[in-house]
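Notebook, student rotation project (T.W.).
Task set for the rotation: take a protein with a known small-molecule partner, predict the structure of the complex, and write up what can be learned from the model alone. Partner molecule chosen: zinc ion. Sequence and SMILES entered below by T.W., checked by me.
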Amino acid sequence: MLLDPSELQLLFAQYNNEWFGGEVPAHRIAYNARFANLAGRITYKPPLIELSPKHFSEHPEALRETLLHEMIHAWLFARGQNPGHTAAFKKKMRELGLSSIYHDLGSAVPRRESAKRFILRCERCTMELLRKRKPPAPISCGRCSGRRYDPRYPLRVLEVVEVRDVPAPAKAAHVVTRR
Ligand SMILES: [Zn+2]
Ligand SMILES: [Zn+2]
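Predicted structure of the complex:
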């Protein structure tokens, strides 16, 4: 059963109090139905955690670990620390009872850092583009605005921190739920 976004938000608040002393800045948590091969994605600007509805309806047990994992990234970032999979990251994982980043995510493995760090998204048609650099000026959606720049259909810039691939079927057999 898939939690609705308000339930996800409650879970986030609950984990935040329980494990992070409320230090994780508020993030919008949303499902992205366009995720075919992604389980989840986190961006800090704007603070947003997106999850695949398909993946989490099939693997509800993966939600806790995936959410906590993304929250550790956000927590480190908020503290001005390196938000990567550092020693501090792993220490926090152990505190939370999560084991390896590669084997304990409800099998959703973090993808290697991508060179393309920016997503430009049209909120109207949900089209997305990947870019290595942040566009120097606002741009609008080519599909929605035609040939000229149209401020009614801006492309929103998301800076990607991490994307999670949906596990390969072979790995899904190793889903680990600790507790
Ligand atoms: Zn990660
Ligand atoms: Zn569009």
